[in-house]
């Protein structure tokens, strides 16, 4: 009997300092995995909102520029600590300095000796592998959501989909870090995972883009020196293409860089020789057409060093920051975080423009805003030694490893990828390192997802793990799995608690506002009922609610629903009858609308194709006729058709032409009335957004219309935008201070604003003591 095994879906992952890129394998057309908000990357961050709140993972986490000590990011850096050494000849001191500098600008409390982070909100310390597992849990959910979207399946059992995570990492990642990455994958029930060198991934992408499906003879690698010669030279060109070409790939991210040299074409086809070469150099090639000759990685060089250089420059030299003390702009402080964010923005601007300016709010003297100005020459002065020259050294090291300077003689292309390579200073450094001028074109064929894409391209090895798993290691993995599953279950419980809390709050607010509804008179007017509502409000902000389990919350919600039924039986019965009646009315109106359409079609009025240039008097008669019909429909509570007639009347208002000033005033008065009536009809139909738009149109006709301001305030009140409603009432009361309707609505708005402020105060007291 033959057993059919479903192959795992390979997921390529590029774990970056700021964001993580994810792609699926060919099974799903190398789809880029979107996050839950629709973005193409997932922030490499985790936020702990508190012991009674779910974790905020990936795209839901707080922005790192605004996050506090309960938001953890740059997990790729935390995993390596000081263990990741550059593959250049540079001292390990650079790595330690870089790690210290980056930690200084992170508000979370990282212990470099234990590779763990203390989270005040949870009063718990988590090691970096567990933190990465939390992020990978979100990555897995995003992957499964993408697969479900592509396949059209909605399988609630996510574990049914077998996945294999393939992580693209720098070649200088130590074995202990590679093992930690795979352990984190295991903790989210991804039993198959691999860690591969980024250079292999880039070679695989280059192979697919320029060689797969083609004869090597037909591929022209060079993008700088190729030319279209006559057909007589065709054979000579093919002969040239058979020769080996060299491709230099420079990748610079936020906090790490990699330089790789690839050999393209001229493969020997001898797989035994190729395998021996791989064992000898420990850098496996992707195939016969594209092979990795050398790869040099740096765990210290990245675009973040430019941010830090700008930060220290402005901190020391900007006249508006001369007042600052050593404590005011300490890296972990809020002002320093804002200054750092401003430096990042300025760097991005200077990547596109020769000079730029960025304003940073409230970091100057007396909380004034500070303007940061700079140009590309400033970047060179600050970063030539620490960034540009180091990149040149990396390229030189890669060239030496690939066989010396002669390898550059066959250079066919220079590929740049990663955010750091968008900076002109970095591009100039690359050209200078290989002896090329400004006119040499740097190729950008490899985009920012290339590492993840390449990871998903690499074939599945016979073994899905590439680290030795001991009994002690198995126990550690089991512990990680158990802890992460427990935290996932806790998140589910906390989300359910929030849902029930929102249901209770909405229920209480609905009962309070129902007092002014059609059947509000059926609600109890006793103090007992008012106390019941106040009691539920108070309970929502109590310690009992905060510490309640999901079961206790569900029991409380059931009790509230039962008690409401006792208090409001007549009101609930009336609203239910209303709902049923409205549903029947909608069905009847649909039938009437169909009948009207048929009738209008018989009169040639199925659609408004009236482009006649009618005299003013005749056109106004049509407008008023539609308005009169609409008023009759409205009086009969046929709001849907009334709205349609008001809209039709307004459409005729747009067909007047060559109006005198008096005629224009008359039309404006009619339009004002129609907009107000149409807004009222939409309010009755509970289409508040439509009603709001009609009120705005009415105010365009007459900005001093008390009725329009009152009606818009009513809409805003129902939309629970009390502050905006209050502003409209302020304007209306200036025009009609004695209007009783305005006064009545004012009382309702102020009552809700008072309650809202009380709730905010209670919440603030709860959060901050």
UniProtKB/TrEMBL annotation:
Question: What's in the keyword line of the UniProt record?
Answer: ATP-binding, Coiled coil, Nucleotide-binding, Repeat, TPR repeat
Q: What is the superkingdom listed in this entry's lineage?
A: Eukaryota
**SUPFAM superfamilies per the UniProt record, alphabetical:** Actin-like ATPase domain (SSF53067), TPR-like (SSF48452)
Q: Where is this region: Disordered?
A: 219-242, 269-288, 579-612
Task: Give the record's GO CC terms.
Answer: cytosol; nucleus
Q: Does the keyword ATP-binding apply?
A: yes
> Where are the compositionally biased (Basic and acidic residues) regions?
579-595
Annotated coiled-coil positions are 471-498
A single GO molecular function term of this UniProt record: ATP binding
Compositional bias ranges of the Low complexity kind: 219-229
| Leader peptide range in chain numbering | none
Q: Describe where the TPR repeats fall, as residue ranges on this chain.
A: 706-739
Q: Where is the composition biased (Acidic residues)?
A: 597-608
Q: Indicate what this protein is called per its UniProt record.
A: Uncharacterized protein
Q: Which organism is it from?
A: Skeletonema marinoi
């Amino acid at each position: 009997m033959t057993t059919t095994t479903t192959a795992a879906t390979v997921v390529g992952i590029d774990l970056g300092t700021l964001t993580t890129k994810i792609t699926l394998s060919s099974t799903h057309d190398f789809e880029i995995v979107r996050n839950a908000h629709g973005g193409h990357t997932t922030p490499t961050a985790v936020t702990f909102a508190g012991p009674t709140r779910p974790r905020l993972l990936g795209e839901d986490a707080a922005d790192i520029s605004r996050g506090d000590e309960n938001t953890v990011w740059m997990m790729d850096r935390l995993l390596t600590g000081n263990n990741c050494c550059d593959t250049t000849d540079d001292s390990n001191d650079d790595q330690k300095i870089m790690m210290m500098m980056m930690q200084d600008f992170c508000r979370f409390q990282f212990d470099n000796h234990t590779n763990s982070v203390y989270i005040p909100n949870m009063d718990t310390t988590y090691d970096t592998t567990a933190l990465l597992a939390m992020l990978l849990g979100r990555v897995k959910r995003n992957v499964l959501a993408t697969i479900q979207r592509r396949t059209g399946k909605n399988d609630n059992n996510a574990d049914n989909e077998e996945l294999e995570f393939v992580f693209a990492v720098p070649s200088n990642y130590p074995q202990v870090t590679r093992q930690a990455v795979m352990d984190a994958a295991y903790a989210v029930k991804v039993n198959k995972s691999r860690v591969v060198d980024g250079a292999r991934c880039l070679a695989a992408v280059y192979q697919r883009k320029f060689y797969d499906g083609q004869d090597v003879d037909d591929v022209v690698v060079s993008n700088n020196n190729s030319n279209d010669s006559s057909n007589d030279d065709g054979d000579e060109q093919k002969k040239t293409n058979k020769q080996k070409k060299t491709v230099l790939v420079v990748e610079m991210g936020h906090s790490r860089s990699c330089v790789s040299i690839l050999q393209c074409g001229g493969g020997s086809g001898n797989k035994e020789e190729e395998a021996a070469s791989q064992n000898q150099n420990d850098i496996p090639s992707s195939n016969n057409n594209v092979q990795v000759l050398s790869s040099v990685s740096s765990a210290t060089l990245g675009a973040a060093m430019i941010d830090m250089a700008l930060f220290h420059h402005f901190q020391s030299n900007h006249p508006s920051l001369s007042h600052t003390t050593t404590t005011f702009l300490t890296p972990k402080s809020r002002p320093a975080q804002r200054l750092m964010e401003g430096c990042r923005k300025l760097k991005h601007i200077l990547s596109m423009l020769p000079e730029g300016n960025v304003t940073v709010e409230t970091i100057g003297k007396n909380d004034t805003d500070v303007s940061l100005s700079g140009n590309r020459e400033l970047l060179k002065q600050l970063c030539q030694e620490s960034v540009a020259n180091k990149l040149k050294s990396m390229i030189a090291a890669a060239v030496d490893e690939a066989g010396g300077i002669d390898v550059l003689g066959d250079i066919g292309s220079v590929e740049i990828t990663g955010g750091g390579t968008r900076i002109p200073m970095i591009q100039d450094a690359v050209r200078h390192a290989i002896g090329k001028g400004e006119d040499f074109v740097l190729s950008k064929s490899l985009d920012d997802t290339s590492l993840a894409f390449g990871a998903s391209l690499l074939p599945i090895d016979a073994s899905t793990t590439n680290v030795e798993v001991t009994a002690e290691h198995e126990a550690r993995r089991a512990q990680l799995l158990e802890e992460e599953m427990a935290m996932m279950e806790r998140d589910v419980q906390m989300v359910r608690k929030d849902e029930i809390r929102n249901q209770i709050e909405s229920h209480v607010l609905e009962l309070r506002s129902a007092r002014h509804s059609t059947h509000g008179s059926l609600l109890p007017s006793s103090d007992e009922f008012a106390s019941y509502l106040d009691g539920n409000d108070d309970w929502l902000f109590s310690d009992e609610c905060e510490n309640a389990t999901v079961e206790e919350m569900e029991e409380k919600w059931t009790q509230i629903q039962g008690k409401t039924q006792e208090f409001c039986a007549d009101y609930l019965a009336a609203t239910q009858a209303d709902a049923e009646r409205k549903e029947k009315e909608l069905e009847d109106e649909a039938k009437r609308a169909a009948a009207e359409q048929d009738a209008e079609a018989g009169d040639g009025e199925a659609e408004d194709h009236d482009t006649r240039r009618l005299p003013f008097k005749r056109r106004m008669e049509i407008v008023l006729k539609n308005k009169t019909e609409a008023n009759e429909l409205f009086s009969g509570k046929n709001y849907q058709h009334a709205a349609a007639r008001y809209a039709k009347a307004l459409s005729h208002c747009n067909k007047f032409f060559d109006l005198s000033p008096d005629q224009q005033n008359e039309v404006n008065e009619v339009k004002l009335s129609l907009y107000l009536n149409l807004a009222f009809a939409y309010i009755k139909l509970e289409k508040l957004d439509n009603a709001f738009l009609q009120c705005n149109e009415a105010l365009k006709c007459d900005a001093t219309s008390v009725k329009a301001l009152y009606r818009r305030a009513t809409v805003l009140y129902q939309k629970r935008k009390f502050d905006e409603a209050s502003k409209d009432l302020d304007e209306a009361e200036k025009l009609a201070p004695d209007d009783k309707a305005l006064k009545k609505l004012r009382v309702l708005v102020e009552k809700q604003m008072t309650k809202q402020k009380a709730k905010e105060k209670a919440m603030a007291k709860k959060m901050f003591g």
